[in-house]
Design goal:
By secondary structure, this protein is an alpha/beta fold. It contains eleven helices and 17 strands. It is 24% helix and 27% strand.
Length: 347
């Protein structure tokens, strides 16, 4: 039978989140029931709760950075047992039949992956995310959190970690490569940590030098302010990869100018506004303007194992669920170092 659990939800677009109850489905043959312990607050939660990316489904329970413990398993579950430490990221299902799904890129499912929240499951019902006490997820979309990472700092890895790990691996960040990370926020700070752990020479490009000391402690080798025009002159033609993590429109021509011949500017931030670009910025230097969206389930597990191997989690500020609306405003004001995480025991 279904389970009623407490949650925090946005009742309508732009409305403050409030405590409510939701129904979780009966645990099926291949499902696991997870007692959520921590849920990260991603900037995309705010975009969706405020319909910045288009029409959304309400009431909405955000949260796709989920860490907890298995409390029940279905009769056919083979990957997990009660008591296992697990996580759930941005998707909870896909068609599992198309070429992207069969090749481990479920996030690019041709029929559309089922999002952890603000989505519709195969049963036709809306999905609700991690700002809640429990969640039921198919074992195929559940991740194992290694013992080397505590659950609170592991939660943001389920989005911020994989969102930066996947493009850095794809574009060859490693020894001998120069990587710039644009923005030192929830995504950017993980980009710096991961690029450093991969062996790349890492530069942070931020609006100001306010967070310079933090950036260097996180693993950056260099730190520059993008508000200083000399930065773009001094660093022209420097980088193999520029990873943009910001959700604001950029002067893409200027950032493409920072690339070496054949370099790539990869976007994981998603501004709400369209951008314009002079294509000569790409043609000159055989450069690439690319995007990247999270990662598949296998790659997400690889990322978690990599982070555990390097004793690496997110830098977090733990909050009570009643502080979520305040936390949203602070995220918009860049007033968090570097990821808010909700203590689900307070929901």
């Amino acid at each position: 039978m279904t389970t009623t659990v407490a949650a925090y939800a946005a009742p309508s677009a732009k409305a403050p989140l409030e405590r409510t109850t939701i129904e979780r489905r009966t645990v099926g043959e291949h499902d696991v029931l997870i007692d959520i312990q921590y849920a990260g607050i991603c900037h995309s939660d705010i975009h969706q709760a405020r319909e910045g990316w288009g029409e959304a489904i309400f009431p909405m329970v955000p949260g796709h950075e989920i860490a907890g413990v298995v409390s029940e398993v279905g009769s056919g579950v083979t990957k997990f047992k009660v008591g296992d430490r697990v996580g759930v990221g941005c998707m909870v299902d896909s068609c599992r039949e198309c070429e992207p799904c069969r090749s481990g890129r479920e996030q690019h499912c041709v029929r559309g992956s089922v999002q952890t929240y603000n989505g519709v499951g195969k049963d036709g019902r809306p999905t609700y995310g991690g700002y809640s006490q429990k969640i039921v997820v198919d074992e195929a979309f559940t991740l194992r959190i290694p013992e080397g990472i505590s659950l609170d700092v592991a939660a943001p890895l389920l989005c911020a970690g994989i969102t930066t790990y996947s493009p850095l691996k794809h574009w060859g960040a490693g020894p001998g490569k120069k990587v710039a990370v644009v923005g030192l926020g929830g995504l950017g700070h993980m980009g710096v940590k991961i690029a450093h752990a991969l062996g790349a020479e890492v530069t942070v490009l931020s609006q100001s030098l306010r967070k310079k000391d933090d950036g260097l402690k996180l693993g950056a080798d260099h730190y520059y302010a993008t508000s200083d025009p000399k930065t773009f002159e001094e660093l022209a033609g420097t980088f193999d990869v520029v990873l943009s993590t910001v959700s604001a429109p950029l002067d893409f021509g200027a950032y493409l100018g920072l690339l070496k011949t054949g370099g790539a500017l990869v976007n994981v931030g998603a501004p709400e506004e369209p951008i314009s670009l002079n294509l000569f910025s790409l043609i000159g230097g055989n450069k690439t303007l690319a995007g990247s969206m999270i990662g598949g389930i296998a790659e997400t597990q690889e990322m978690l194992d990599f982070c555990a191997e390097h004793s690496m989690g997110a830098e977090i500020e733990l909050i009570e669920a009643s502080q979520v609306n305040e936390a949203y405003e602070r995220v918009l004001n860049s007033d968090v170092r570097y990821r808010f995480v909700i203590d689900a025991a307070t929901i």
